[in-house]
Design goal:
213 residues, alpha/beta, Rossmann fold, seven-stranded parallel beta sheet, six-stranded parallel beta sheet, globular, binds coenzyme A
Length: 213
C-alpha cells in the first residue's frame, strides 16, 4: 500500500516527519500547483497534480492531508483542508490516522479517519476526535473532550477536560479552553486566548491586542 501526501506546503513537511518517526515513507506528494511538479518536499518527490491520485485504485493507495490553514478573525481558513479530504474520501480513498511517535494517545481515545496527532501532543482518556481533525505540535486534548470533524487544535493549545468543539473550528496556538465549555462549529479562537465562556458557532474569541506600536 502506497502513501501519498496531498499538498506540498509547510504542513506536508510536518506530516512527513510524523510518518518518518514511525518508519513510514510516503511514495509521493501531489499538489494542484503543477509548477511544483519535479520538486521535493522533505526529500519526497512531487509527482503531479491532485488528480494523479485517481490513477490509482482505492485499494492501492492511502492518503495523508498535507494542507494546513491560516485563520483570521472572520474565518477558520479550514475550507481548503476540509474540501481536499472530502473530495477524496467521497471517492472511497482511505485517510489513515497518523501520529508522531512522540505523541501520547490514551488507549480508549477514539480517532476518526484521517485524524492527525503531531509531535508531543497528548490525547487523554475517552477523548473523541472526528475525521480529518488536526491536533498539532504539543497540543493537549484532555479527558472526555469531543473534537468535531476538520477542527484544528493548533500548536500548544490546551482543551481542558470535557470540552466540546464543533466541526471546522480553529483553536489558536497556545489558547486554553477551560473545562466543560463548548466552542461552536466554524468558530475561531485567537492564539493565546483564555476561553472562560462558551463560544458560539462561527464566533471569534480572544485576540485582545497587547502592547503598542
Ligand atoms: C486572531 C487571529 C485569528 C487574527 O487574524 P487576522 O484576522 O488575520 O488579524 P491580523 O493578523 O491582521 O491582526 C489584526 C490585529 O489583531 C492583533 N492580533 C492578531 N492576533 C492576535 C492574538 N492572537 N492576540 C492578540 N492580538 C492579536 C494584531 O496585532 C493586529 O493588531 P493591530 O490591528 O493593532 O495591528 C490570528 O492572529 C490568530 O491568532 N490566529 C491563530 C494562529 C495559529 O493558531 N496558528 C497556528 C498555525 S500552525
Amino acid at each position: 500500500m502506497s502513501l501519498i501526501v496531498l499538498c506540498a506546503g509547510g504542513h506536508a513537511r510536518v506530516v512527513i516527519e510524523a510518518l518518518r518517526s514511525r518508519c513510514m515513507r510516503p511514495a509521493a506528494v501531489v499538489d494542484r500547483d503543477t509548477t511544483l511538479v519535479g520538486g521535493l518536499v522533505s526529500g519526497v518527490p512531487i509527482t503531479g497534480p491532485d488528480e494523479d491520485v485517481l490513477k490509482m485504485s482505492v485499494g492501492q493507495v492511502e492518503l495523508v492531508n498535507g494542507l494546513g490553514n491560516r485563520a483570521s478573525r472572520a474565518d477558520s481558513g479550514l475550507s481548503g483542508r476540509r474540501e481536499l479530504f472530502g473530495r477524496f474520501a467521497a471517492l472511497g480513498y482511505r485517510f489513515p490516522v497518523i501520529s508522531h511517535v512522540s505523541a501520547t494517545i490514551a488507549s480508549d481515545a477514539t480517532l476518526g479517519d484521517g485524524a492527525q496527532v503531531m509531535a508531543g501532543a497528548v490525547v487523554q482518556p475517552a477523548a473523541r476526535l472526528g475525521r480529518n481533525v488536526l491536533v498539532n505540535t504539543r497540543a493537549v486534548v484532555e479527558h472526555d473532550c469531543i473534537v468535531g470533524d476538520h477542527t484544528h487544535v493548533a500548536p500548544g493549545a490546551v482543551l481542558c477536560g470535557g470540552v466540546s468543539i464543533g466541526e471546522g473550528a480553529h483553536i489558536g496556538a497556545g489558547a486554553v479552553i477551560l473545562g466543560r465549555l463548548s466552542v461552536g462549529a466554524g468558530a475561531v479562537v485567537a492564539a493565546g486566548a483564555v476561553v472562560a465562556r462558551n463560544v458560539g458557532a462561527g464566533a471569534f474569541a480572544g485576540g485582545d491586542r497587547i502592547g503598542s506600536r
